[in-house]
Design brief:
This protein is 40% helix and 13% strand. The longest helix is centred in the last third of the chain and has 18 residues. The protein starts with a strand and ends with a helix. The protein is globular. A 7-stranded parallel sheet has the order 3-2-1-4-5-6-7, with helices on both faces. A 6-stranded parallel sheet has the order 10-9-8-11-12-13, sandwiched between helices. The protein has 2 domains: 232 residues, Rossmann fold; 212 residues, 3-Layer(aba) Sandwich (Rossmann fold). Helix 10 packs across helix 14. The protein is of the alpha/beta class and 463 residues long.
Amino acid sequence: MNQKLLMAIYFYPRGGSSQVVRYLYQRLEKKWSSALYSGSLGNKGLLTNAETFYRPLNVKSLDYTTAHTAWQKGTNPFDTENPMQASLEDRINVPDTLMARLSPEQLAKQIQSWRHLFSKELLEPALAHLHHLTPMHNAVYELWKKTKIITHLHGTELKMIEYIRSNPKLPFGDWWIEKMIENANMSNLIITVSPHDRDLALELLSVPKHKVITIPNGVDIEIFKPTTLPDKVKMSYWKHWLVTDPQGWKPNHNPGTIRYTENDLKEFYNDDGSCAPILLFVGRFTTFKRINVLLDAYSIFKSHSKQNAPLIIWGGFPGEWEGEHPYEFARKRSIDGVFFSGWRGHDDLPLGLTSSNIFVAPSVREPFGQTYLEAMACALPVIATSTGGPASFINTEPGKKTGWLVNPDDPYSLANALQEAVEDQNLRETAGQNARDYIERMYSWDNIAEQFTSTYQYVLSHK
C-alpha cells in the first residue's frame, strides 16, 4: 500500500500553526514516507525562513521573499511569479492582504505556484495533510486524483468566514466562502483543534457531521517543563530580554524601539528584594486576543493591590497589529508596570514561561490556545476566558484547579482573578502543579501523534 504522506502549510513560519506542524511532523516522519512543504520568507537565519524554522527537518518551500520585496518597492506582491501569501486576517499596510480580497485571477495564480511546487513529487501521495483552508487545496485537487485530503483547521479560517459575513462589502467575500466550503467538502476528513471549532466548522462549512473530528494540539513535555530558577538567574533573563536585547516595537517602528533600563526593572522586586510574581501574556496583537482588556484589568488590579507584579507582553509580530497598538494603549492611560518584550523565537519561550509565575491571556473565542498548554506544562496556572478552546482544558477535573476562567470582555472579572493569583502563592503553585500533571496525562505530543496515525490509517482504509 502507498503510505506516502504529504504535509503542507501555506503560510511562512509566524503563528502557532507553524509550531504545530513542526512538532507533529517530527513524530510522524518516523512512521511514514513523508514530505513537508511550507511557505517561506527571508534569508536563512530568519525565523520566518522555512529552512531555519523547521531545522533539522527537510522542508520544501515556496519562497515569498521576491513578492515581499515587490511590495516594499510599491508594486503588487500578487503579480510576481510566486505571489505573496494572502492572510486570513484583514490588516492594513501589509503585503499579505486578506484572502477574501483576492480576485479569481489572483487565486488562479496562487494555485499555479503551489501546483508547480507540488508537481516535483515523484509519487502521488496517499495522503495530503493540509493545514488551514487555502489555495493549496485546489493545487492538490488538480494535480492528484487519488490522493486523500485531510484538512486541519486551526480556527483562523473560520474566523475569516465570520469576518466576511459581517463585512458584506468585501468585493469577493461571498465567492471566497463558496470556495472554502467547496474545498472543505472535497476533503476526506476535517480535523478541528477543539469542540468549539468542531461545532463552528459544522455551522460555517456545511459539511457532514461524520467528516469532522477533533484532535487537540499537543505539547513537547520534555521542552516545556517546570524548572525552578533562582531569582538572580530569572532576573538575568528578563534583563537580557528587556534591557540588553530589547525587541519590543512601537507602531511603525522596528524591533528594539521599546527599551528599558535596569532601574525600570524595580517593578520585578518585592520590598524584601525577592522577585515579585510575574504575569506573562504571549501572542500576536490581534483583536480577539483582547490585550487592551488585559491592560484595563491590570490597571484595575494595580489600583487595588499593594503587591508588585509586572505584566510582560511577549509577542506581537513586528509591524502587525489590529485596533489600537497595545503599547500606545498603555502609554496614553499611564498604565505602569507593563513591559513589551517583542517577538521572540519559540526556543526562548520555555525560558520565558519558567521565568514567570502566572500566564494570562483573555482571548475571546480562542480557536485552541497552544501557548496556554505550554504554560500549563511549565506548571504555570493560567487565566483565560470561558470561551473557545481554553474552556476545554482548564479546570476540567473536579477538585483539581489549574487556573481561572473569567467572563469575556470583563476587565473587573479579570482583575479579580489577577489579584487572587498574585496574592495567594499557595493557590497558584497548587494550580500550576495540577496543570502540569494534567498536560502530562492528556496532551503530550507523543500521545497526540498516535491519534493522527490512527486517523491516517482510518482515512486510507475507507473509500
